[in-house]
Design brief:
It contains eleven helices and 13 strands. The chain is an alpha/beta fold. The strands form three sheets. It has a six-stranded mixed beta sheet, with helices on both faces. Strands 2-1-4-5 form a four-stranded antiparallel beta sheet, covered by helices on one side. The longest helix is centred in the middle third of the chain and has 17 residues.
Amino acid sequence: MTTTTAAEAAARTSGDGPAVSAEDLRFSYGDIEAVKGISFDIAAGEIFGFLGPNGAGKTTTIKMLTGQLQPKSGAVRIMGRDAGRDDPQTQARIGVCFEEKNLYDAMSGEENLRFFAALYGAEGVDTGALLGRVGLADRASDRVGSYSKGMRQRLMVARSILHQPMVLFLDEPTDGLDPVSSVAIRGIIREEAERGAAVLLTTHDMWEADELSHRVAFINEGQLYAIDTPENLKLQHGRRSVKVRRRDGAGVNEESYALDDPAVGEQLRAAVESDGLMTIHTEESTLENIFVEMTGRTLEA
């Protein structure tokens, strides 16, 4: 898990309030209420995991935060300003990386970055260094039309940070990436938070959310079920246990003992003294398990 706390990240800023503030947001598609009065803040320098299954309201919420949709009620403030589609000052301070790869296939990777840098007024950006950060330096001159899905995803991440935004919206930024590229992108996300950017991250990878996020929010059917640090959620809602694996004839037997059970001491002592002991290790609930417990749905549903 990332070691810088949200409070520490916020302390590095001027104290002018949260970088992102969502207050009682609501949005409906016809008679279907997609977002049902949710509220949360994101501090400067904080990575905020926004977790939920498809159709939970994540995308609608992000579109309201980025000015693509107007809330039916509620308010959005970005860096202290009311958010909206027609506010160039706010739009210039945010970076986005969505699942839709709206890149220019006929241009090279470097040309794509230079084009968007000009739109942001950041013509002096070192596009070569930026492409190197996402592992695309050797493909900088190749047309994006020849890029794989993973390469396009890495270029989208590079594009989202080229103007050093103070707020980053990252929707499944490691989706489709190989393990090495995923590690590199996670490193960039941490670096951007250390720089002071507020990061809203959506991901179906609960290990990734746990590793990166200072806090996470669970959303399902347009409602927020919890907002807290991953550690607190696991302590409050998880089941602490120890798993013991022993050889049982030609097979392997596994048993789990609850650490909160008064009898756990005797159970573990007997396990250690038994023949065929292979391993003993502690277990804790995952964010996925806690989400299912709270909502009755999996994050992949």
